[in-house]
Give the backbone structure.
Amino acid sequence: MSDTYPSSSSPLLIVGSVGIDDVKTPLGEVSGVLGGAASYAATAASFFSPVRIVAVVGDDFPQEHLDFFRSRGIDLTGLQNVPGETFRWSGYYDFDVNQAHSLDTRLGVFQDFRPDLPDGYRDADYVLLANIDPTLQLQVLDQVRDPKLVMCDTMNFWIEGKRDDLLHVLARVHVAVLNDAEARQLCGTFSLVQAARQIRELGPETVIIKKGEHGAVMFGAGAHFSAPSFPLESVKDPTGAGDSFAGGFMGYIAHTGDTSDNNLRRAVIYGSVMASFDVEDFSQDRMKTLAREEIAARYRSFKEIAHFEALGELSLLEKLNG
Amino acid sequence: MSDTYPSSSSPLLIVGSVGIDDVKTPLGEVSGVLGGAASYAATAASFFSPVRIVAVVGDDFPQEHLDFFRSRGIDLTGLQNVPGETFRWSGYYDFDVNQAHSLDTRLGVFQDFRPDLPDGYRDADYVLLANIDPTLQLQVLDQVRDPKLVMCDTMNFWIEGKRDDLLHVLARVHVAVLNDAEARQLCGTFSLVQAARQIRELGPETVIIKKGEHGAVMFGAGAHFSAPSFPLESVKDPTGAGDSFAGGFMGYIAHTGDTSDNNLRRAVIYGSVMASFDVEDFSQDRMKTLAREEIAARYRSFKEIAHFEALGELSLLEKLNG
């Protein structure tokens, strides 16, 4: 297991959906594959830190998916297995990979799920509230003792239907991550700068807005940070890109234990790196062969893609004034 | 004129529309203002290098607009003034500032325009074929002797209606700049990576895709370059942002005479800087008060926005391996 976490890292607690997906894109079609926000996030994070999942699956959940989690070193003590149907999502993408079209969403066993954290999970330093009903996110927060950094994700469905609970979640987290459409919907403004400020006023000191193929922007106490996206030849399956981003981000933070602005910026790049790998194949297939050396190499590519020289000796102003 | 070009710079030749605009945005409304691709590009470029315009206006063109060009040190020898109506555009923007809605476009005197370059213009080293009928872009190219760098811009109207001429233009330029929708339209693919490669196969070694509020990406012989956009609180009038980008880019290249990859990257940032100022006010009003110190300060802001640390001593891989 040379590509799982180093033993020095702090564990990351992730709550969110674990499910089964049917997905169709212009480049193919799969059914019965591993899906769910917590699944994607946990796998991405597992390259950086130990991961503990809090979620529920039904008795139809395939053994191979459990085996995959275990192959990534993911702790499944908090994954309840109950009679009933696992959460299922089916959807498709056209050529605009930024836009998922849902065909069917069945909550299944998540409908009656009430997270009950194993005692060893309650002192988690790092918590990722992946996309799930904000009521469940709050129940997890209530059980965690004194976390150092909590990040939450969400989606349009909860912004519409569970706004109050979502606002309670936001008031209690350090970092909110959402995509551009969700930020605009939540705040009723087109300007992402204004939306980010509004969200920061709701609680989180840091807001990260994911922009799909256009990268991500982080707004915090200091300067904005704009991360490029990785220019891929083609996107095979965009499902889970945002969750992989969140997992990569929080996994790296848990690994380093460093929440300085400089390190948050690095975490955004690691999140972007993991999202860029995720979309290269269906479901989590790319993660099955991904090596940590590839992660480091892609980080360097991001650096090269974003690089330009500072105003230096040859700068316009200095030429003119000097 | 401390904010016009330094005398050491090479002149930049710009062909494109000069016109009169009526524009409405969620933040206001103006009519009879200075518009046209060449106008915006020339003004942006004039902060970096001497500029020569090749275009035509009618006898209704306001003196104040000519005075503004002159205040920016722009050479108007090649700006024909003929009887008839100046090019006019009227349009509006909703909250999605990336999407212009045209209400009316009247070519006016551009309909019978045939560019005739003053002899002194023909040895231009740097040429910007701003958005205009590609037939006119070709006529200008035919008259220029041995330019070092030619950049062309275009729009959906010419991609649809004058595709053959546009392909001839592309075969003869070094840099093509277009927005993401235009790149997709021209190449019939959603992937910007694939579109850029297709366009490079048509002629230009370098392709720059403008993505509005999402920045710009440059594809060349080397690595991709992704430039962030400047996170503005609000966009008052997006008209001319792309033209200001092209003008800032080419003005900086003409100023430095350096077409290395590193300097093209800087030029993309200067183009982005000029676009970010352009949208802060209607028409070219922001340019009337813009100082070169502000340009340099915003360049530094772009650097800060895009900055993240390379994999260094504390890197994941080295921690694990070391």
